[in-house]
Amino acid sequence: MEDTLDQVRQKCALQLDMYQKCIENYPHSWDKSCMQQKKALTKCSEDNVGILKFVKERCSLQINNYDRCLGANAENPEECVQVLKELYVCTEATSIVYREEEQKKKQGEEKPVAAAEAPVNTEPVKN
Asked: Any idea where the IMS import disulfide relay-system CHCH-CHCH-like Cx9C domain is (predicted)?
């Protein structure tokens, strides 16, 4: 998860900064006041950090539950700790699957290269 956040920080620094500043400026209404900044950060993240789209597709139930909880408890977000834990478990498990799939893709790309570099037998076939 930490490496994913690092990628978001690197690739969406402006959007992340604007969202954080909005939350700081509107501590009591950030969930409504910062929707535009949240959407911009979400779009940037999904477009530039592959694992996020993968996680969003596979953890949509947990994400929606957490969003609803925050919306219902904007003044008291600590009420959403259990829902956040469920989201965390899903994202961590999904991240493992994503990394494994990415590793398989890389290995699949390496095999043709390795085969192309293999020595070719130039001796005629004897019958």
From this structure: 5-49, 52-92
Beta carbons within 8 Å of 70's beta carbon, 6+ residues apart: 31, 77, 80
Q: Are 101 and 55 in contact (CB under 8 A)?
A: no
Structure tokens of 117? 């570099």
Residue-wise pLDDT tens digits, 53-63? 899 899 999 99
Residue (of 67, 61, 68, 70) closest to 89 by Cα position: 61
The whole-model pTM stands at 0.60
Q: Give the whole-angstrom CA distance, residue 65 versus residue 84.
A: 9
Distance CA 89, CA 122 (A): 55
Dmax of the chain from CA atoms?
A: 85
- Read off the amino acid at residue 107: Q
